[in-house]
Every structure is written in C-alpha cells, then in structure tokens.
C-alpha cells in the first residue's frame, strides 16, 4: 500500500512539473546542432537545470491558478478526466504547501546548476541565464509577469533565451543564424500559448490575468495571432533571402510553414482554437526538426 501511495504521489509531482510537455527542452538538441555537436556534457547539465527551472515555474503557476480560481474555471468538473488530472492541486492529490516546497526546491537546484555553468561563460550568457531564471519563477508568482500583461513576451523570450544560453555556454559566440533560429524557436511556445489564452480568456479575465486575448477585442486578438504567424513566415523568408542561412533555408522550413498556415486557418479562420492549439505543438516540433536538419546538413557551418 505504501509503495502504491508513493508511486501515486510521484506521479502527481510529475504532472505538477508538466514533464509530458517537453517542447521547451527541444532548445537543447537545437543548440547542440548550432554549435556543431560540441559541449555535449555542458548542454546535458544545462538541460537538467532547465527541467528543474521549468518545473518550478509551472508548479508555481498551478498554485496561483488554484488559489485565484482560474484553474477551477478553465478545468471545471466537466473537463475530461485526463485533462483535469494535469492539475493535481485541483484533484486534491497535492496541497498548496507541497507544491510550493516542490517549486522552491526545483528553483534552487535548477538555478544553482544554471549559474554555476554560467560562471565559466561570457558575461552576456550569465546575465541572460539570470534573467531567464528570475522571470520564469515569477511568471505567475512574485511579480506575476503573466498577470501583468507580460505573458506573451515571456513565452517567446524564454524559449529564445534557452537557445541563446545553450550556444553561449558552449561557444560564447552568436551568429545571425543562431539568433534567427532562437527567435523561431521562441515563437513556437508563443503561437501555442495565444490559442490557449483565447480558450481561457473568460477564466483569465475573471481573475485579472491580462493576456492579449483578455485585453483585445475578439477581432483584435485574431489580428494579433495572424500578425505573429505572418511574422514567423517572414522571418524564414528573409533569413534565406538575406543570406543568414543557406539558400535552401526556406525550402527546408516549408513543412513547418504549412502546419502553421493550417493552424491559422483552423484557429482564426474557423474559430476552432482547441484544435489550433494542438496544431501549434505540431508546428513547433516540425520547426525544430527542420532547423536541426538544416544545421546537421551544414547550414550552421
């Protein structure tokens, strides 16, 4: 019985840490290919720290959502059991105190790994690591960045920062292609998140969480999403046209662009934001695979 309870508790902590959502962690293999396969040990340690930092951030987000009632509104009793199980505070498997202790432990351990690695890196890398760490743990806690109109900036900025830090820890140097790929990576979580925010707008508005979906009119929110999607495509085209990447860079990203267009049609054109949100995950993963392929084929040389 004790073993079963322990396993159940461990499973609840894994769901609190959202270990099944690994899209931010794709920054590590992308950075590895950008630096030519060097620094494997460094990037693995950076990955351990990243998992811990992200776990702290999402756990604190769950605590805040549980306390202010937004999670109860967005994950109500009519939600599918599998979806509701992603919120172990709502299901009563964990308490707020347990979640806070878990988040604090993860933040301290992950932050220590990051900053120790950063001591041997250029100053800009250390500073960026510190910014990513402090902003992530205050996403819904402390400064409550996501509640004060900064959610969209954080979603893109954190992903971009992970790629830049990964490269900085190994080489300390940034190239135009590294920056372009980092921004494309950062746009992935953002173009998933804006559809989630659209679906959760009513619950977020009720607790004062100021996302674009809450602050803008429905038409304004659709225009915002459309603009972000077009900006991503434009970045791919300009990177190829200006010689930032190889001449075939845009061709390599065509599958990712196609999924993004399908997502835009589904979410903005047809209004099916839940399906569009799923397509956002696919678009991000296809983008990362395409960028890794570009780098392995010599595009980052």
TrEMBL record:
Top-level taxonomic group: Bacteria
Keyword presence, Ribonucleoprotein: no
Annotated membrane topology: Multi-pass membrane protein
Gene Ontology CC: membrane
Protein name (record): 1,4-dihydroxy-2-naphthoate polyprenyltransferase
Keywords for the protein's UniProt record, in alphabetical order: Membrane, Transferase, Transmembrane, Transmembrane helix
Entry-linked Pfam families: UbiA
Enzyme class: transferase
Organism per entry: Actinokineospora spheciospongiae
Transmembrane segments: 42-60, 153-171, 177-198, 219-240, 246-262
Molecular function (Gene Ontology), one example: 1,4-dihydroxy-2-naphthoate polyprenyltransferase activity
Subcellular location: Membrane
Enzyme Commission number, as recorded: 2.5.1.74
